[in-house]
Structure formats: C-alpha cells, structure tokens
Design a protein that fits this description.
about 375 residues; five-stranded antiparallel beta sheet; single chain; alpha+beta
Length: about 375
C-alpha cells in the first residue's frame, strides 16, 4: 500500500468535511465518504451504518462487499451478551478517541477477539478498523472497515485520520436528517428546527417563523443575535468549497427568549449558491461543554465530569485517571459546588439529555 504523508491526511479531512457540509440524504453521504476514505485508507470490505441515537440499533446501511452471513454474525455478536468482546461500538461511543484498530487493541493477537475467531478468520479477513460518528455523547452512525488476512494491519496514523472524520460525518448525518424532517409534511412540530436559507451574498431568501421567533430579525442591519446565522453559513460555504479546514459549521447561541440554541449550516444542492441554516433548541448535552467552561471547571474537573456522566463507578474513574479515591472525591466535591448540584443524579439531569429518535429513509 502506498505511503501517505500528513498533508494527504489533512487533504482527506478537508475533502470529507466538504462532503459533509453539503445537504444530502444520509446514506448517500456515507457512500461518498466511503469512496473518499477508501482511496486514502484502503480496505477490502466495509459497513457504513446509521443508528437510532436512542437505542443504537442500526436503521440504515451502506455496505461494501460484506458477506451476508458475516454481517448477520457481526450484528449478533454486537447485540449479544458477549460483553468482553473488543472495540464494541457502544464502548467506542464513550471513548476519548472515536476509532480503534483491532490489531492495536489486541497487541497484535487478533485471536483475542471473539468476532475475529468466529467470523473474520474463517472468512479470510485480518485487521479491522472501527469508528463511530458522534456529536457530544450522541451517536448517529458508525463504520467497520476490514482488510483481507494477507494485507497489512491498519496503522496508528490511519486510525488517527479516520478518528478526525467523526465530527464531520456526524454533523452531515444529523443535518441531513433534520433537513429531511424540516421539509416533510409532518415537520410542523413545536420543538422542530427553524430554517433560514441564504444566498452567497448573505441575503436571506427565506426563513421559517420558528427561526425568526428564536433569532429575531435575520436581516437587521445591526445583526445582533442573528450574526450567528451568517457566521455559520460562511463556515458551511467555506467547508463545502474546501477553502478551509476546521470543525463543522455548528455554533451554540442564545435565543432572543433566552434559551440555548444549536445553529448548524449546510450547503444546498443545485446550481445556484444557497446555504441552509437550521436553528433548533439545544439539548442539555449540546450545552454541557460550554457550561463546564462557564463555571470555570479545570481540565481535570471536566474530564471527571464526562466520566461521571457515562455511569462509570467512582472506583473505576479513579483507576482510569490514575488518582486516589480521596483526590477524586475532592474533584467531585468541587464539580458539584461549581455546578450547583448535590448528587450525580442532579449532575446528569443538568448536563445530559433525552435523545430524540431519528429514522433514516430509504435511498
């Protein structure tokens, strides 16, 4: 396999960011992302999957040459009671790095993985690279890339560059679902997203009442709170045209009524340059990272908070962070005081959320 430079890695991230900055049906998006990734990180078979963020069950698949029996076997192992299997998607969804190679996790002993011995080895496959597509703590999809046994294992750099794609692909999936929902006949719900469509000069072509109610006038010369619309639209245009690299076109903002909003931009298909900006009520998990900064939590306190939200026991948290139980108790006490809560239950209530269910439509 040809050696790739770090500049090649950066170009892949920029390319995928551009793909995900354009509005499209999520399975079409995954197909285009797969084509870009496969040229840079070669693999032989793969499954690119959409999941229900509430249940983590698969509700859409773009598959590349996966044998049917292998696919069914992988699903059974993933959902079964084999909790000791390695690199399960549910675990990657909570991990600091949202991607992992089986060869690295097993220390080069693939036979330590149950799915490798039961499925991959009999089918003639070798190493596997898995990644999840998440926004905050919410998972919108994942991918499983596999090489034949005679091919080299996935390198650390390949894992790293695939991990860098996660927020962009998650943004693309979620935006595609939101747009499909916003323009469907059943979209008129009180808590649904508002929509603003802008031309390339920043002029507003149209805006839904929900968007105007939350943002105020979006063509006011002073801009005020609606400046976020133009900022997010500009970032979406730049990403789609591959003029810049960087994070997805997403920002948190306060509505004119005071509540937090999540504002995300995407480039619309078609010959005329138009950008859609979706404005939706923010989940608590969307705002949680900002709240941690606003309340001046230290880097270690933010790390402890994230682990507390996963449900991990305090003993396991102390072990993972290589600190004593007494030190951890001091961090927890400081976190509770800064956030004005008295228990882990109250902490979860303040910073977590109840995910909405999304379903992918057929391609």
């Amino acid at each position: 396999m040809a050696l790739r430079s770090r500049a090649d890695d950066d170009r892949l991230v920029t390319q995928v960011a551009g793909i995900c900055a354009r509005a499209q049906e999520p399975l079409v998006l995954l197909e285009r992302v797969a084509a870009a990734v496969r040229r840079h990180v070669p693999y032989d078979v793969a499954g690119w999957l959409l999941v229900d963020p509430d249940t983590l069950l698969i509700n859409g698949v773009y598959e590349e040459d996966v044998p049917r029996q292998a696919q069914l076997g992988l699903i059974e192992l993933e959902l079964g009671s084999h909790g000791d299997d390695l690199n399960k998607f549910v675990d990657l969804g909570r991990a600091k790095v949202p991607a992992a190679a089986l060869s690295a996790t097993t220390g080069g002993h693939l036979e330590r993985c149950l799915r490798w011995t039961r499925i991959y080895d009999p089918e003639g496959f070798g190493d596997e690279l898995r990644t999840v597509f998440r926004t905050g703590a919410v998972m919108w999809g994942h991918a499983c890339l596999t090489r034949l046994a005679e091919e080299p294992w996935f390198s650390r750099r390949e894992v790293d560059v695939v991990a860098r794609l996660s927020p962009h692909v998650a943004h693309g999936i979620r935006t595609g679902l939101l747009l499909h929902e916003e323009w469907s006949e059943e979209a008129h719900r009180d808590d649904g997203p508002g929509l603003v469509v802008l031309d390339d000069d920043g002029g507003v072509e149209s805006a839904t009442p929900d968007a105007l109610e939350r943002l105020g006038p979006v063509e006011d010369g002073r801009l005020d709170g609606s400046v976020v619309v133009h900022e997010v639209a500009a970032q979406a245009r730049a990403l789609a045209e591959r003029c810049v690299s960087g994070p997805p076109a997403v920002a948190r903002a306060r509505a004119v009524t005071g509540e937090w909003l999540l504002v995300r931009g995407t480039r619309l298909a078609g010959p005329s340059g138009r950008t859609a900006v979706l404005v939706e009520p923010a989940r608590r998990s969307d705002v949680a990272p900002l709240l941690l900064h606003l309340h001046e939590l230290t880097a270690r306190e933010r790390e402890v908070t994230q682990l507390l939200l996963t449900g991990m026991s305090t003993a396991d948290i102390a072990q993972q962070l290589w600190i004593t139980s007494e030190t951890l108790r001091g961090h927890v006490k400081a976190i509770f005081a800064k956030l004005g809560v008295g228990s882990r239950v109250e902490l979860v209530a303040r910073l977590s959320h109840e995910p909405r269910v999304r379903s992918a439509r057929g391609s």
